[in-house]
């Protein structure tokens, strides 16, 4: 049985991340992880005419560099999974227009990175594909104008606000033994804690993250100490404290091996409020930084929980609360053949 | 002295609006609308006229001043000739301000790209 | 009170509160300074062009809005508002910024569907409430007087 417990998929037959590629914007490049990223843009427009085109360019570049590093071409890919934050997933769909590979579009808000990896691993394990390309992206300005206000509008944001990461990440998964093995994935349930403030996503997403992490431990019968690092996607300064408290209340102590991608990507002195968020936050930190750290031997086994606030401006304006979801993937360092 | 009064009045209105956002948890665009509406109410009752005589730009530059200008147009009509004049009169002073802002915003948008 | 049992209440302890006092002081000082500047402009216009006090006030407001729109075009007014809060947004300059920022943001959708149609997206509310309130109270004033 590949399903263990209620929500966890265990992949026993060796599914590996072949290669990963990342592209980021200027503010991410000013952060501490600059050298982990493959492509760095100095300009928020990335040489394009509009924000949306800039985001598309980032995803295209992440895919391109990923395939180059893996020495693969589109002919070697059986399935393409991608998603982003924009309405109708325009970035993913328009990128897929240029890629002659069967395509499934995915939406999980900021949890898209781990959602695509988990789905890709399942397709490969089930024999429906040999190698799968998974990509996701977000852009600060496209997200601001769609979910909040025009970028130049003077709005005084509170300390709880998060800052959408500009960037894109892509990975190729396959059966060929590589440096990183996908060991398991826990698919989250939609959790709605009743939060309504779109300028405080950390509080809205923390219960979803806690739910997925607890379920993962329950399903596999393990404890937090089995991992070198448990990392959430974009809970930021507010949500990461809440999730730690929620886990502590359930009897799981993650004080020593917990971190959040939204806190890792920027320097604390950058003007980014509570920390980074967006699909690209978890994607570029995991695909860029964490995979390199594992290769270096800093971590042997990590649990990446990408958190997504399923936010819609229309629903928020109709006074509906913000549902959230979190998907976790276990990545193990593997010795290359 | 006039500048000190303008400073105190304008600053006071802004500080109250800030408290409405921070303590009252009202969204910014709601507070902006509210401030204009308060200006209209104080304007039509003639109170705002006295505040402007006292504080000058300290009362006209805050958004409540926009509400004041709307009612100032209505009140300054010698004779209100039916409801049609109300609609026209409220733009006597605001028309210049609004059309200026709209035209300038339009041309700015043609020239400038959003910087993010 | 634990997060598990009553999340919506307990979570408030984890959400940093805005710096009430500091924010208000910033709004007071910046808003006050801008108003004093506008008062200086109004006085100057009034004596230089020898126009009525109300026209001078109008011109001063328009001058301030001009600077706000120019700063919005240069991409600086949003940073200024983040610092000054209500001191920047609750003035007519804030309304000018609301119109200009929406227009600039939507230039990518073209002149008509973008700039012209979307200009009132965020500033429109204040203008609509002003006109509706003035219309209703104006009618009331007309009937009473």
UniProtKB/TrEMBL annotation, chain A:
Domain of life, per UniProt, equals Bacteria
Q: What is this protein called?
A: Stage V sporulation protein AD
Pfam families to which the protein is assigned, alphabetical = SpoVAD (PF07451)
* NCBIfam families per record: PRK08304.1, PRK12404.1, spore_V_AD
What GO MF terms are annotated?
A: acyltransferase activity
* Species: Saccharococcus caldoxylosilyticus
TM segment ranges: none
Q: Which InterPro entries match?
A: SpoVAD, SpoVAD_sf, Thiolase-like
From TrEMBL, chain B:
Which one Pfam family would you cite for this protein?
SpoVAC_SpoVAEB
* Sequence intervals crossing the membrane: 29-47, 52-70, 90-112
Q: Give the keywords, sorted.
A: Membrane, Transmembrane, Transmembrane helix
InterPro entries the record matches = SpoVA
Record protein name field? Stage V sporulation protein AE
Q: Which organism is it from?
A: Saccharococcus caldoxylosilyticus
TrEMBL record, chain C:
InterPro entries found in the cross-reference section: SpoVA
Keywords, in A-Z order: Membrane, Transmembrane, Transmembrane helix
Transmembrane feature ranges? 20-42, 48-71, 83-104, 124-144
A matching Pfam family:
SpoVAC_SpoVAEB
* Superkingdom as given in the UniProt entry: Bacteria
Which PANTHER family does the UniProt entry name for this protein?
STAGE V SPORULATION PROTEIN AC, STAGE V SPORULATION PROTEIN AC-RELATED
Name the UniProt record assigns to this protein: Stage V sporulation protein AC
Organism of derivation:
Saccharococcus caldoxylosilyticus
């Amino acid at each position: 049985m590949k399903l263990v417990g209620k929500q966890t998929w265990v992949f026993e037959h060796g599914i590996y991340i072949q290669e990963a590629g990342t592209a980021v914007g200027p503010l991410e490049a000013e952060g501490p992880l600059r050298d982990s990223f493959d492509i760095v843009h100095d300009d928020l427009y990335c040489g394009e005419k509009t924000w949306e085109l800039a985001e598309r360019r980032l995803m295209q570049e992440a895919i391109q560099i990923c395939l180059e590093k893996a020495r693969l071409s589109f002919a070697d890919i059986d399935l393409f999974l991608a998603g982003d934050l924009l309405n109708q997933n325009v970035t993913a769909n328009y990128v897929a227009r240029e890629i002659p590979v069967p395509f499934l579009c995915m939406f999980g808000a900021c949890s898209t990175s781990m959602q695509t990896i988990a789905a890709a691993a399942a397709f490969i394990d089930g024999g429906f594909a040999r190698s799968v390309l998974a990509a996701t992206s977000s852009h600060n300005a496209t997200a601001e104008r769609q979910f909040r206000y025009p970028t130049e509008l003077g709005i005084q944001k509170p300390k709880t606000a998060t800052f959408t990461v500009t960037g894109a990440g892509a990975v190729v998964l396959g059966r060929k033994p590589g440096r990183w093995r996908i060991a398991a994935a826990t698919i989250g349930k939609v959790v709605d804690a009743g939060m309504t403030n779109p300028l405080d996503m950390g509080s809205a997403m923390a219960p979803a993250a806690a739910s997925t992490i607890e379920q993962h431990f329950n399903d596999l019968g393990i404890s937090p100490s089995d991992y070198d690092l448990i990392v959430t996607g974009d809970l930021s300064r507010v949500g990461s404290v809440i999730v730690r408290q929620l886990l502590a209340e359930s009897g799981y102590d993650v004080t020593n091996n917990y971190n959040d991608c939204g806190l890792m990507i920027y320097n604390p002195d950058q003007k980014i409020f509570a920390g980074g968020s967006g699909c690209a936050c978890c994607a570029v930190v995991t695909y860029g930084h964490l995979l390199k750290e594992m290769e270096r031997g800093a971590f042997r086994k990590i649990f990446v929980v990408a958190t997504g606030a399923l936010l819609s401006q229309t629903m928020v304006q109709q006074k509906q609360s913000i549902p959230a979801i979190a998907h976790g993937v276990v990545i193990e360092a593997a010795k290359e053949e | 002295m006039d500048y000190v009064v303008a400073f105190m009045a304008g600053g006071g209105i802004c500080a109250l609006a800030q408290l409405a956002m921070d303590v009252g948890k009202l969204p910014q665009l709601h507070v902006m609308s509210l401030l204009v509406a308060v200006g209209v109410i104080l304007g039509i009752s003639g109170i705002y006229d006295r505040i402007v005589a006292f504080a000058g730009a300290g009362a006209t530059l805050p958004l409540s001043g926009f509400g004041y200008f709307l009612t100032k147009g209505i009140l300054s009509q010698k004779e209100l000739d039916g409801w049609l004049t109300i609609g026209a009169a409220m733009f006597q002073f605001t028309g210049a301000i609004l059309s200026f802002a709209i035209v300038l915003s339009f041309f700015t948008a043609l020239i400038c790209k959003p910087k993010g | 009170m634990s997060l598990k049992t009553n999340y919506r209440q307990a979570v408030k302890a984890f959400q940093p509160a805005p710096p009430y006092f500091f924010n208000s002081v910033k709004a007071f000082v910046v808003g006050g300074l801008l108003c004093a500047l506008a008062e200086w402009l109004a006085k100057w216009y009034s004596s230089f062009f020898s126009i009525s006090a109300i026209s001078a006030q109008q011109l001063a407001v328009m001058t301030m809005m001009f600077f706000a729109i120019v700063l919005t075009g240069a991409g600086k007014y949003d940073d200024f508002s983040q610092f000054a809060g209500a001191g920047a947004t609750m003035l007519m300059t804030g309304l000018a910024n609301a119109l200009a920022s929406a227009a600039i943001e939507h230039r990518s959708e073209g002149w008509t569907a973008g700039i012209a149609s979307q200009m009132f997206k965020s500033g429109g509310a204040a203008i609509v409430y002003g006109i509706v309130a003035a219309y209703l109270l104006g009618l009331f004033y007309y009937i009473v007087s």
